[in-house]
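Course assignment 3, question 2. Fill in each field.
Student: A.L.
Task: Predict the tertiary structure for the chain below.
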Amino acid sequence: MNPATYHSRRAGSVVTVGRGEAQFHAFRPVPIPRDLDLDRDLVLALSEADQALGRLASLGSLLPNPHILIQPYLRREAVASTRIEGTQSSLSDVLSAEAQLLPETPDLREVLNYVRAFELGLERLRTLPLSNRLLREMHAELLRDVRGEERTPGEFRRSQNWIGGRGPSDALFVPPPADFLPELLDDFERFLHEEPALPILIRCALLHYQFETIHPFLDGNGRLGRLLVVFYLVERGALSQPLLYLSAYLERRRDEYVDRLQAVREEGEFESWVTFFLRGVAQQAASAVRSVESLVHLNAAFRDRLRRIRARGQAVDAAESLIGNPYIAAPRLAEMLGVTRQGAQYVIGTLERAGIVVPVPNTRPALHVATEVLQVLQRDDRPE
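Answer field:
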């Protein structure tokens, strides 16, 4: 980390740690700003993000079974977020493995731990406010039995970490030393519960920036920092259902994402970072609205197809489950419907006759897929 590139003290200052050959530089951020200069670009981006988020929030409140729709989007977010950290699993890999009840590979476990940490946090949010304690609990689940499990899951770090390079002396960025964490995390938690005179999406952008800059854990900070975004919006009532995920946007613009965060630290460019963040919210919210509407229409179309062949009951339930996971196999379906494997195979045959699923060649257990649902879930998130 080169202290000469840090030209502004608006976001923090460089501190020197250690002596001699062990000496290195780290960044000590200031408390989270409680006000910002809202320039023209930022105001325009805020307006577009607010409108898109409002449409998504209103749609989420009208869904008859929101959990079915949250399922695939959470997994898509988990795939994108963990891919940023280096995993290789695709959405299709994750959904098909779950449908077949296959053992978890290391990459698959990282993706599913992201899902489990999210579900744990959402459940705990009913009785525990968004807080440092909740983030620690989610972090413990995130790193359970995966790479980084030896790096104190569920505990804030007590030693130095760094980003890029082999150590803090040649790193691209060095977060604040552990001695500064208590005061920084106290301020972070205060900001979570305050009502500063800033729109909620701007507060969300500042929280994400500060979390990534503090880097309070030895591992898993990126994934947890991205989860923080949707949790803050849900807790504050900006979203009725957790249907907004930013990782696909950040993955596509990974270099710009890193550069924008670093520009805050080096040049104090909070406004440019917030504008970038807001554009991501607008794009991902609009994409989610389009996809949710498509899945709702497909669910209705599946019911119509089943009516035409006079199928009902378990076939209807199975068809609805395809919105949550377009892959289907007899062992898991039997478990889900409480029927024998033969009964599950009969239901799958009914779905195939209705033109809802097609077989996936060379799979064991035999796998079928609702290709129309899968196409919606894999649709490019770029704006139309």
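Instructor remarks: The longest strand covers residues 12-17. Residues 70 and 243 are 6 Å apart (CA to CA).
Grade: pending
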